[in-house]
Design goal:
By secondary structure, this protein is α/β, with parallel strands linked by helices. It folds into four domains: about 90 residues, no CATH class; about 90 residues, no CATH class; about 220 residues, Rossmann fold; about 80 residues. The protein is built from 18 helices and 21 strands. The strands form six sheets. The chain has a six-stranded mixed sheet with strand order 6-5-4-7-9-8. A hairpin with a 2-residue loop joins strand 8 and strand 9. Helix 2 packs across helix 4 and helix 8 crosses helix 14. The protein is elongated, with a radius of gyration of 32 Å.
């Protein structure tokens, strides 16, 4: 049997493809793709293929020298391809490319031409691939597709939006004089369709709770975390969840579980200096943002933090115009210490969670913890945890409720500016013991190093912080002007 006989006998069962930009030939045999650089691999694949498709043929020559046969078949395939191109006749194209061109419909937003998406007509979902990627791939094969008279989907107009908390069902709407689909860009996590039996669900929930008991030893803090996760999944959480603990204790595991719960495409990990940069496009179309060791010291940082919890935010990317979008993003923060962030006593946007100081390998066991970390992407685990979290819907904490705990008060003290920290030190609110009950404002200034005095806080700032400060839930400071001393007296009244 010679190569031409094999080719002519099986060519209808082979799929030929050419990349228009390079002229390279690919052969698809039994679902596998082979290039002209894979002649030996293709030749070996031909032996069982021909035996199956053409039973009774003599395959001794093919078995003896598969590379020679495969090379000649590639040459014959290229000749036919070139002949078909010149004559205008069609030829078979890569089935994946055909699928790409016919199953996926590209859309462009009728208001913002930079906003595009690829919609999977079969699965009825927004696909993860970008329009530029889809267009580039289809363009490379456009000659093939046109020769085969395949109808390539063209770019159409749509009303495109993002909302992780509304339906992803596509509906037709009338905009002006145009009838178009309204498409939600939100990509629903695939694990939501998983069905669980009771035993499997219980197993995974117990694993999650065991991990959380390690990470957050205080029960009330731990329960608050569950409510915070509930609001991330079902609405936007207005409070930042701040995990404070030593490095290597498992804080990142919490972030990765949250990433799995909301879906990888709906989660973003930001740089710790994101409050200092003018570009924040990474927040667009996201459900959760995670920042490790975030820096928030200056007043402009605090103002930026406040704006991020607003209903709408200004989004600006590099080389892009600023635009206002609705914000769906909840924020998770982790840090080893409080010195990188200033928390005002009356700030309602931070919920501080004190995490364990123990390593998970020691607390949970190395084998158990290693197995647990494998479940970050396990769909059954994610579905079980989600079902558990969704039970925390009794309204104990709503989207605006921060956690009132002593750790928040400690965070206020530890993150305070130098002037306030001297005051807290004077009254023994940090590490030292003190029975002092009062101090004059000018005496605090004297306690500062000479290099620190130029940063001395105004009395307005000191009064505002101290009179809203609580310790174990009670206000303990009063600031009064002493006419005799012509100075402000700071008194500890509790």
């Amino acid at each position: 049997m010679i190569p031409s006989e094999i080719f002519n006998s099986i060519k209808d069962k082979l799929v030929l493809d050419v990349t228009a930009s390079t002229g390279n030939v690919h052969i698809y045999c039994d679902g596998e793709k082979y290039t002209s650089n894979q002649v030996l691999k293709f030749g070996n694949a031909l032996i069982p293929y021909v035996a199956k498709e053409l039973p009774g043929r003599d395959l001794s020559g093919l078995a003896k020298d598969p590379t020679k046969y495969a090379s000649e078949i590639f040459a014959l395939a290229k000749e036919q391809m070139e002949s078909n191109l010149s004559s205008g006749e069609g030829f078979f194209t890569d089935p994946e490319i055909v699928k790409l061109a016919t199953q996926f419909q590209p859309y462009m937003d009728y208001q913002d031409t930079s906003k595009t998406l690829i919609y999977d007509l079969e699965r009825k979902v927004v696909d993860a691939q970008s329009y530029d990627s889809w267009k580039s791939t289809v363009k490379d094969h456009l000659i093939n597709l046109r020769k085969d008279k395949i109808d390539v989907k063209g770019l159409r107009m749509a009303a495109i939006y993002f909302d992780p908390y509304s339906s992803t069902e596509v509906k037709q709407v009338v905009v002006g004089s145009m009838d178009m689909p309204r498409i939600n860009l939100y990509q629903r996590p695939q694990y939501l369709d998983v069905k669980l039996d009771y035993d499997t669900s219980t197993k995974y929930v117990e694993m999650f709770e065991k991990y959380m008991e390690h990470l957050v030893p205080d029960e009330e803090d731990r329960v608050y975390c569950y409510y915070w996760m509930y609001h991330c999944i079902t609405s936007k959480m207005q409070c930042y969840l701040f995990l404070k603990g030593k490095q290597g204790t498992g804080k990142t595991d919490f972030a990765m579980i949250l990433k799995g719960l909301v879906g990888e495409n709906n989660f973003t990990a930001t740089k710790n200096n994101f409050l200092s940069t003018e570009f924040n496009s990474f927040l667009d179309k996201k459900q959760v943002a995670y920042a490790d060791e975030v820096i928030c010291k200056r007043e402009e940082h605090r103002e930026a933090f406040k704006k991020l919890t607003n209903e709408t935010v200004q989004i600006e990317g590099k080389g892009q115009n600023q635009r206002t979008v609705r914000s769906f993003c909840s924020f998770l923060i982790s840090a080893n210490q409080y010195t990188n962030i200033h928390i005002h006593p009356d700030d309602r946007r931070f919920s501080i969670i004190k995490c364990t100081s123990a390593k998970p390998d020691d607390s949970l066991g190395k084998t158990w913890y290693s197995e647990f970390r494998d479940y970050w992407r396990n769909e059954e685990f994610l579905k079980a945890v989600r079902d558990f979290i969704l039970k925390h819907n009794d309204g104990k904490y709503d989207t605006y409720n921060r956690l009132h705990n002593h750790e928040y008060e400690i965070a206020v003290v530890e993150s305070a500016n130098k002037t306030l920290r001297k005051i807290y030190d004077h009254f023994g609110l940090r590490e030292s013991e003190s029975e002092e009950t009062e101090v004059y404002y000018s005496d605090i200034r004297k306690k500062l190093e000479s290099s620190e005095r130029r940063f001395f806080s105004t009395i307005e700032t000191v009064r505002e912080n101290l009179e809203s400060f609580t310790w174990y839930g009670e206000k303990i400071f009063k600031v009064e002007y002493d006419q005799t001393m012509e100075d402000y007296l700071i008194r500890k009244v509790k």
